Amino acid sequence: MLATETVENYLKAIYLLQRDAAADEASMGKIAAALGVTAGTATSMVKKLVAARLARHERFGGVRLTTKGTRAALDILRRHRLVETFLVDTLGLDWSVVHDEAERLEHAISPMVLDALDRHLGRPAFDPHGDPIPRADGALQESEAMPMSELGSGDAARLVRVLDQRGDSLRFLRASGLKVGATLRVVAIEPGAGVMRIRPDGGSIVSMSTTAAARVLVRPTRSRH
Amino acid sequence: MLATETVENYLKAIYLLQRDAAADEASMGKIAAALGVTAGTATSMVKKLVAARLARHERFGGVRLTTKGTRAALDILRRHRLVETFLVDTLGLDWSVVHDEAERLEHAISPMVLDALDRHLGRPAFDPHGDPIPRADGALQESEAMPMSELGSGDAARLVRVLDQRGDSLRFLRASGLKVGATLRVVAIEPGAGVMRIRPDGGSIVSMSTTAAARVLVRPTRSRH
DNA sequence: CGCATAAGTTTGACGACTCAAACTCTAGGT
DNA sequence: ACCTAGAGTTTGAGTCGTCAAACTTATGCG
Questions:
Q1: How high does pLDDT run on average in chain A?
Q2: Half-sphere exposure of residue B97, counting CA atoms within 13 Å on the CB side?
């Protein structure tokens, strides 16, 4: 029930790793890396999560959250994403810095403040990165989208979500005019170089690696050049 | 420099106790009580503050902050009071609950967020309780005011500050129409009972103990009945 | 197959913060 | 001057989260 701040961080990290993993479970090494902690520390914390019925784990195997653990992780994610939305929409901070700020604030938000914040922001469904904000009851509606890297040359699309939270990635995207909601068109793809060239509407052409483009999600628009 | 959350709490408590004390120093017992900790714990933490040049203390004597400690305490107080102002002005929470909420949030606010918050709120000089908000450079302008308990029968005054942060006290004041900025008149004083009777403008007469009234600060207005 | 390497686990230790309980000092009254 | 009640201090121990280093298991290469 009363998760410590550290436990909250583990739950959130495991949830996100689990979501991204093929096998739907988080490896100990990745958990440790995500939290900036040694593998031994992660092992012992996971042991504690298991004792609290928040996660399941068997020796040398992967980690996965229980229903209870998932519920807790979604609550933390909700706090995180609402705080990010607040920092951008209300305080006018740049989206490239809000992730780290929210990382600290998310643990200090009580249910009462959270609800007031939610109301103040107009109960938003998505944060500034396009990530869905879990609702108070734990419901989470992922938006339909595909990686920008899968677009073909000439395809037009709308940018709906940016998975990368790293400040420099976000600053690059903002500087290029590639923000959530923007429309764009693929000008060219150079598979050999692993690079695609993109033109945001009303901006100039930018090149980015297909691996970077894979972390940008888009929804294709009907128009085809 | 990098004060831990616990250290921040000690600094703030010592600052406030020192301000209220006649001898301008905080006793170990009161520090312990303010933090909900045993006397032994307070002694050892103060020892740590002294080692960090944040406070001065000699065995069996009082504790007082150094210049460095005072500067740090004012920074924490600034965060606390700006957060309170935000919770009331922007999120619309009741002033009787914001103290405890701010107590948690104040440690998670970075300088960048703090400044954005300050700008968003219009760089306020006072928080919802009428407490002055220290400025970023540490300047603190106390408002001139006297305890309501020192008014005489028939005196009129404007309520400028409430020192008590306890939720039930604040709920009583709000319910009575006694909020910061309200004008009022002393209807009667009954020294024997230790009670004074107050009529807020546009409200009905309320009784309160002179000890409670001493924690409410007012500025007398020229009009005399 | 066998074994080296990567991944995971265990162990012992530490720093931060806390308590309970034993101990010491200070101050006030007679 | 004394002596005691109350305030303050010290000590020993415990919890939480962490690390480094020794150890164990799983796996994939040759």
A1: 94
A2: 11
